[in-house]
Amino acid sequence: MDDDTFGVADNLNTGLLDSVYNIVPADNFEFTFPTPANDTAAVTEAQAFYTIGNNDMTTEATDYSNGDYTAGLVNQDLGDINFATIPDEIQFVGAVEELLALFPGM
């Protein structure tokens, strides 16, 4: 999965708010994950990203309540990706790896 697929929209979204407040973004929305060897590894890795996403969204709420709208938006975008997008991708890759293991030599 190419993180640029999601990063462009999030960078534009955050960049517009950054330009208003004249702030340089602290995060570039770059993320990676190891290829899971099987379904079990995929579930474990996906759970880690769910947790990270949940933490991002908790931080987002704190940022917004403190009036830090740029940081809140960055954490909102990261939370959305980490909580909803990446875990699905990881589980898909894990399922494919599990299927490929059934056919040695592929």
Structure report:
The chain has 106 residues and is mainly alpha-helical. The chain has one domain (4-101). Helix content is 74%, strand content 0%. It has three helices and no strands. The protein has helices at residues 4-21, 39-65, 69-101. α1 (4-21) packs antiparallel against α3 (69-101) and α2 (39-65) runs antiparallel to α3. The protein is elongated and about 55 Å long. It starts with a helix and ends in a 5-residue tail after the last helix. The model has no long low-confidence stretch (mean pLDDT 77).
What's the SSE blueprint?
Layout: H1 4-21, H2 39-65, H3 69-101
**Shape by Cα distribution:** elongated
Q: Could you estimate the helical fraction of the residues in percent?
A: over 70%
For the CA atoms, what is the radius of gyration? Answer: 16 Å
Biggest β-sheet strands, sense, barrel: none
Number of DSSP strand runs = 0
Reading the helices and strands in chain order gives HHH
Tally of helical runs? 3
Chain-averaged pLDDT: 77
**Straight-line distance between termini:** 20 Å
Alpha-beta classification: mainly alpha
Strand portion, in percent? under 5%
Tell me the number of structural domains.
1
The residue ranges in which pLDDT falls below 50 over 5 or more consecutive positions are none
